[in-house]
Task: inverse folding
């Protein structure tokens, strides 16, 4: 994986779970697996199918942020 990151010149940190601990923690049963995390950092929707992804993102983005703002303080 580090070779691929360097070859593609990926400028952001890339995490690699070589022991599968994250997969087990989130009960991943297929790849790719999609999880929607809201503005508060909570996993809201898990294990989506490809065709469900866009609608799920739209639903979570349409919600009013808790406390009326996003973590950066603006909307």
Result:
């Amino acid at each position: 994986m580090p070779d691929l990151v360097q070859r593609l010149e990926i400028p952001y940190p890339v995490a690699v779970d070589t022991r599968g601990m994250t997969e087990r923690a989130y009960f991943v049963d297929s790849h790719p697996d999609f999880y929607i995390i809201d503005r508060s950092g909570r996993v809201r929707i898990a294990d989506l199918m490809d065709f469900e992804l866009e609608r799920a993102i739209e639903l979570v983005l349409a919600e009013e942020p808790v406390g009326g703002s996003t973590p950066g303080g603006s909307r």
In short: Residues 53-62 form the longest helix (10 residues). The chain is about 30% helix and 15% strand. The first strand starts at residue 34 and ends at 37.
